[in-house]
Amino acid sequence: MATEAERQAGAALPPAGRKDGSEVRRWSLARRGRLLESAMLPLAWVLVIVGFGAAEPSLFLSMANFSTIFGSQAVLFVLTMALLVPLTNGDIDLSVGAMSGLVSMVVVVLNVQHGMPIVWACLIGVVVGAIGGLVNGLLVIRFNANSFIITLGTGTVFSGLIEWMSNEQTITGVSTSLSNIVFTDEWLDIPIEFYIGVVIMLVMWYLLTFTPFGQRALFVGQSREVARLSGFKVSSARMQGFVIAGVIAAISGILFVGTTGSASPSDGNTLLLPAYAAAFLGLTTIQPGRFNAIGSGIAVYFLATGVAGLQLHGYGDWVQQVFYGAVLVVAVVISRVLSKRRYGEVAAT
Amino acid sequence: MVALLGENGSGKSTLVKILAGYHVPEPGGELWVAGREVPLPVPPGEYREIGLSFVFQDLGLAPGLRVLENLFVGRRTAVSSRALQPISWRSERRAARAVLRAYEVDLDPDANTGGLRPTDQALLAIVRAAEELRAFRERSPAAVAAASRDGGHQTAGRLGGVLVLDEPTVFLPEHEKVFLLELVRRVAADGTAVLFVSHDMTSVRQIADHAVVLRDGRVVGDVAMPAVSDAELVELISGHQAARRIGPAVGVTDSNPAPDAGNQERAAQPAEPSATRPPGARTPGATAMLTADGVSAGRLTGATLCLRAGEIAGVAGLLGSGAEDLPYALFGGLPATGGTLRVGDWSGPLSAHTPHRARELGLALVPADRKQQGAVQALSVAENMMALVLGDYFRRGLLSHARIHRTAFERARSYGVRPAEPSATLASLSGGNQQRVLLAKWLERPPKVLLLHEPTQGVDVATRADIYELMRGLAASGVAILWVSTDFDELAAVADRILVCAGGSVVTEVSGPPFSRDKITSEVYAASAGPLAEGV
User: Fold this and answer.
1) Which chain B residue's Cα is nearest to A289?
2) What residue in A sits closest to B492 (Cα-Cα)?
3) Which residues in chain A are contacts of B378 at CB distance < 8 A?
C-alpha cells in the first residue's frame, strides 16, 4: 500500500527539516532587526527633542515647555488608550472623539446648570460613556455590521446631541475642585492629569499583555474564524472592547473639563485623528505589529513634542493638522512595509 | 457529450486546470481545440480565445449584481470595451431576455443573483459560458470553417468550442439536477461539445454519450455510455472488483430516466434500513463518547453516528455528501437546524451548541483550512500553541510569558516542530510544521473526542507519518477520533471503521477491516448511487 511505504520512508527521516547553524543565525538576526524596529520611534522622539532644542534652546528646552506638553496632551493621551482594545479586537471605533465631547458636556451641564455635585456628575459621565460603548457594540455585533460605518454614524449622533444639550454655546463655570485635582495640582511641575494618563496606560498595557483577556483579543482581531473555532467567545470579547472604549473616552472627557473648566460643542472630534495617528504609530514600536499601550503613549508625546516645536519655531496652527495627518499616513505605511517584510522573511524560510 | 470520471486525486481537476491555463503541464502533450492545435501551456485567461469555456463549482457569479450584469460581464471585460462607453440598459435587458429565452431559462434579468436558488445560479453560469462560446464562434468564423473542412481529428467540438463543467451538480438538490441536465443538452444541441467532470454517476449516465475514466493520472477507459454498466464503471474508477451491493442498482438506473421522484421520496424518509445499522457495533463494550442524532447543518440532513472511546472512525464521502461538514457541525461551528448531541453525561439540541461549549465538553476540532480556520498566521508559535490553556499560566494576576515560552519550546521539541522557536511567526513555518503546532494546541488539554478534517492535507511525508503515529497513540489512550478525509489510502491506513456519507447522512459502513482505497472507493460510489435505485 502506498501509504505504508510512505510511512516507513517517513519514519526513517528525522521529524521534519534539519537544524543547523544558519537557521539559528537567521533567527538571531531577525530578533536583532525587530529590536531595532521597536526602538525606532523612541529614537525619533529623542531626535525631535534634540533638533528643536538646538534650534530654540531657550524656549524649547525649558521646563515650562515640557510641563505644557505633558499636561496639555493628557486628554489625547487617554483618548488614544480608549482605541486600543477595539483595535486589537479588529474593530475601529470612530465615535470615541464625540463620546469624549459628549461626556464633557454632560458633566458640565449637570454641574453648572443643574447644580449637581461634581463627583456625581463625573460618575454619571462615565456611565454615559459605558452606555455609548454598549450601543456601539450591540449595533455592530448584533447586526454583524461594519464597525467603521456604525461608529461613524453613532459618533455623528453624539456630536449632534452635544450641540442640542449646549444650545451650541460654550458652557463655563465648572466647580474648581475638578480642575484643582486634574490640572492645577502638580507633581514634579507636571499636572496630575498626566499621571492619570500614565496609570491608564499601565492598566491597558497590563490588560493587553499580561492577561488571557488580551491574548483572546489578539486572536479575535487577527482571525475571527480561528477564534470562533477555538471556542473563544468572539462576540463578548468585542462587546467588552466597545464598552472599555466608551469608559476610557468618558474619562478623557472628564479630564478635558478639568483642564479647561468648560465644554464647547466642537471639542471631542478634533482629537479623533491625532488619537488614531498615535495608535498606529504605536503599532511600529515596543511590540511592533501589535497595538500596544506603551508604544501609543510614546507616540502621543512624540506628536505633541513635534507640534509644540513646530509652533515655537513660528509656524501657525495649520501645521498641527498637517503634522497629525502626515504622521497617520506615514505610520500606516511603515507598519504595512514592516509586516510585508516580516512576510518576506517567511518566503525565505 | 463526454463525461470525465475518476476518484479524488485521479487527475480530473489537474486536467481541467491545464485546459484553463492554471497549471503548466510537462512538455510532450498536445492540445487540439476546434480543429486547431493549441500550443501548451495555455496562457492564463486565454482559454476564451481558443474556444473553451468553463463553469467551475463556485460558478464565478457576483452575488450582489443583477442577473443581466453577471450574464454580460464578458462585454465589460472585453478588450474592445471602453470604460466610458455608455451602456444602454434597455437594450442590454432586451438582449438578456432574448438570450435567456433562447436557452429556455426562466430568469428575471433584473433579479439579484445572490437571491436566486442554487440551481438557477448554476443555470445562469452555464448560459453565460455557452454565450461566451457563441461569441467565440461569431468572432472567428474562419477558424470554424477551416475546422469543418479539416475534420480529420477526433477532437469533439470542432465547430462550437468546448464547454467544461466541473462538478456542476454537486451542490444542487437532487430533484432539480434535471433542469441543469436539460440545459446542458440544449447547449450541446447547438453544436458545442461538453466535458462533464463529475462524481455524480446518475447525472453522468443521463447525459453523457461516453465516459473517459482517469485513475492515477492515466486514462484507464473510454467507454460508450449506454453499453457500460454501473458496476463496470465503478470498477474502472476504483480499479477494484465492484462490491455485490451494486448489483441491484444497475438495472433499475439504466431503465429509469426520471430519478427525481425517487429522490424526493428518499429525502422524506432518510432513515432507510441500511442507514440505521448502528455504527460502532464493531467495538462492543467500548463506551460511547459522542452520540449525534439527526444532525442537520450545512449539507447534512439528518446524519446519525456514535463515536466510541479508543477508536478512529474514518468518514468517507463524495464531494457534497455532507462528510466535510460533519466535524464542524459536531463542534457547533456550523449553524444547525436540527439534531441532538450527547457527549458523556451532557446532552442537548445541536441548534444551541457552540464551539465554546464543545471545548468545555472536551471536544477538539482540527479544521482542514489551516490558514483561515485553524491557526493565526500572524501570531507566534507559542501564542497559537498555548491559546487554549492561558488560564494555567495566569497566576497572581500575571500571565507568565516566560513559562508559556518554556512550555511551548518543550512542546515544539516533542511534536517535532522545526524550528523549535516559540517566538517565530506561524506563517514562517512550513505546512507540516504548522499542522504540528495546530495539533499541539488541541492536545495541550487532552480532548475526549478529536474531530479531524483532512489533517494531513498539504503536509510533508514525515509529518503525515508522525500524525498517524500520534493519532494511533491517542486512540489507544481512549480518545475517540473522527477522521474525515478524501484520501482513501489514508483512511484505509488509520481507521478502525469507516462511515460512508451520502446525500447528507451517514448511510452505511465500509465492510472490513481490512480496508483498501479501492474498496472504500467502490463502496462510497455504490452508496452514493445506491439509495437512488432503492428509492425507485
Assistant:
1) B378
2) A3
3) 222, 289, 339
Domain boundaries, chain B: 2-228, 240-362+448-536, 375-446
With 0-12 / 13-18 / 19 or more C-beta atoms within 10 angstroms meaning exposed / middle / buried, residue A324 is buried
Say whether B433 and A10 touch across the interface (CB within 8 A).
Answer: no
Residue among A308, A60, A67, A65 at smallest CA distance from A186: A67
Touching check for A233 and chain B: CB below 8 Å? yes
Sign of the four-CA dihedral B172, B176, B181, B187: negative
| CB-CB under 8 Å, A3 with B493 | yes
B240-362+448-536: CATH architecture = 3-Layer(aba) Sandwich (3.40)
Q: Does domain B2-228 have CATH number 3.60.15.10?
A: no
Same CATH fold, B240-362+448-536 and B2-228?
Answer: yes
What is the separation of C-alpha B436 from the centre of its chain, rounded to a whole number of angstroms?
Answer: 25
CATH architecture for segment(s) A40-343: Orthogonal Bundle (1.10)
Chain A residue at shortest CA distance from B441:
A230
3-state secondary structure of B130: helix
In terms of phi and psi (left: phi > 0; alpha: psi -120 to 50; beta: otherwise), the region of B186 is alpha
ipTM score for this prediction: 0.77
pLDDT beneath 50: ranges in chain B: 149-158, 242-284, 531-536
Minimum Cα–Cα distance from B332: chain A residue: A229
The C-alpha of B303 sits at a distance from chain A's nearest C-alpha, in angstroms, of 21
Please report, for chain A, the start and end positions of each structural domain, with discontinuous segments joined by +.
Answer: 40-343
Residues B449-459: tens digit of each pLDDT: 999 999 988 88
**Interface contact A229-B355, CB threshold 8 A:** yes
Q: Do B374 and A229 touch (CB under 8 A)?
A: yes
pTM score above 0.80: no
